[in-house]
Amino acid sequence: MNRTQSNIGTAVTLAVALLVAWVCSLNSLTISGIPLFGFCALIIFVIQYVIFIPSYLNQTEHFFDLTGSLTFISISILSVALSPNLSLINILLALMISIWAIRLGSFLFWRVRKAGEDKRFTIMKTKFSWFFMTWNIQGLWVLLSLGAALAAI
Known about the structure:
This protein is mainly alpha-helical. It has one domain. The chain contains five helices and two strands; from the N terminus they run H-E-E-H-H-H-H. Strands 1-2 form a two-stranded antiparallel sheet. Strand 1 and strand 2 form a beta hairpin. Helix 1 packs antiparallel against helix 2 and helix 1 runs parallel beside helix 5. The longest helix has 28 residues. It is globular. The model has no long low-confidence stretch (mean pLDDT 93).
């Protein structure tokens, strides 16, 4: 994938994420005037970028899947913690998401660790634009997958 394609992919990914965050924030709970859904969407991408930087600098994909899981868990806990409507259903929802994320993330992490690498990333991790696009797509995946739970919480 060339740089232009990667940059377009990143732009489209972020545009979709912004659209989803905006639409879902229209009737979202607000904390100090900030829509909770939009705030969580922002934090999803901040987590991706914080881990992307050392991953790119060290040319490693080892933390990609763990970061996805960490993001699911962090945002689930954050949304419940910030929600003024604390209920058993919200707690159970966050707990079920966290259990699933721990199971998936640990499986994928140990699979890559055992193999020594994830072959999908062999070239990708050496190309900034391509690798960055992939981390953005992961952020969008988390946002879209977690969106219904965020809206419910």
